[in-house]
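Annex B. Sample input.
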Amino acid sequence: MIRPILGFAILCTLGVACAPEKPSEVEANVTRTKPGSSDEQGQAAVAIVNGEVITLGEFERRINGLAPFARARYATTERKQEYLANVVQFEVLADEAEKRGYGQDPAVLHAMKEVMVRQMLNDQLRERVSMREIDEAAVEQRYRANASEFAQPEQRRAAVIVLDSESEAASLRERFESREHDSREARVQDFRLLAHRHSTDRLTAENGGDAGLLRPNESEPARAQLSRVAFALAEVGELSEPYAIEGGWQLTMIIEKRPGQVRSLDEASREIRAQLFEEKRQAARGEFIEELMRSAKVETFHSALEKLESPPQALPQRFEKIPNLPVRNMPTAAPQGAD
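Annex B, continued. Sample output.
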């Protein structure tokens, strides 16, 4: 049993046959093995390493054991030869590791247990849970009970100009409104140019004042305030009165409105089915472990834990909170009269 586990660890080091599966792929992977190979073909040798034969069947099993995206790489004969070279290299390394006694290394023995547990759990879950158990009624029931999760509220994109004082903000707003704009698009373009030139918040100013998309119920305080102002405005191109923010005064304009959308049952069905399947898998996993724990003979000695020294605490890392704003193209030319 040691040799396969040593092999698994080395394969992972080489990047062979270790890609994790997504929960949604587990059901599909139950019947991975290709049915075309006969017993005789499967026993044909593809390599012999230190006297150990690697059969075509074993080689095919290893390829079929890869995750789908990795398995697709080895569709051609040339790629299969590349993979065979990796397998041979792995066998050579595994032989050497075994000679050096790594089979009895505590870390290797622990890794063996981890692989055995993972494989056993996967096998048990495949036996206990099937995607076929998730019927349309269950999908629809989940959809109806959680309709809000599949509804995206209206969103608005706002542009802002931040100034030091109320008088500066009021003066700039008055100058802006005194200009003639022949369309909403022209108003938006003009406002964004002013933001680029005059806003003291250089982070948004570099993007023409663009503060990003807003939802009706933003949680972060500054975004929540901006959201309330943006959703109080009626149309694209409408400009707010000056209002106080932390560190200054702000003008806000809606530059884009996105209507709310509701995903239909058909559109959400695949996602819901995957959720229900994963929930069933987790429930089955818990039940299986509980069954084993009830029959196991376990003794724990909590007092022994007091002898362990506390691990060293990691140093705190500090990061500045910078909004993740989308980069948008700035107008390249100013309308006549822009300053």
